[in-house]
Amino acid sequence: MLNATVATLTRGEPFSSGDVTEPYEAGWASEAVFFARGLDAGETGGSAFVQISPDGIRWCDEGTELALGAGNRLTFARIREFGHFLRLRIELPEGLSRSFLVTIALKS
To answer: Is 90 exceeded by the pLDDT of residue 21?
Structure first.
């Protein structure tokens, strides 16, 4: 029997370059899909980078990049074989702030 869950990491919070989402403890899962959608009319996109952690304190980039589209375009990134905790690090053009809905879908 498979286990699955979907969780919201952020909803409507303003992000600037270098900000991160809330972490999610996902050590039981074997695969994850991040979904991101802008909640504003932002004409400029950006990038989000998947980060992993063994303890939820120290973080490193996993290597997967998620393109953040302009406006409310929905984008996603899939990852497998990750550490115990997951989150996204947001990178936007200098001086830009945007709001996103970020969810994570996990399966084992």
So the answer is: yes
User: What's the whole-number mean pLDDT along residues 49-71?
Assistant: 94
Reference 42, options 67, 73, 8; nearest CA is 73
CA distance 73 to 39: 9
- pLDDT (mean) for 6-35: 94
d(CA 13, CA 22) in angstroms, rounded, equals: 11
Mean pLDDT of 85-99: 94
CB 25 within 8 A of CB 88: no
The answer to whether the beta carbons of residues 66 and 36 sit under 8 Å apart is yes
Nearest Cα to 50, choosing from 38, 33, 37? 33
Q: The tokens of 97 are what?
A: 């702030």
Return the residue matching tokens 């490193």. 60
Average pLDDT value for residue range 70-89: 93
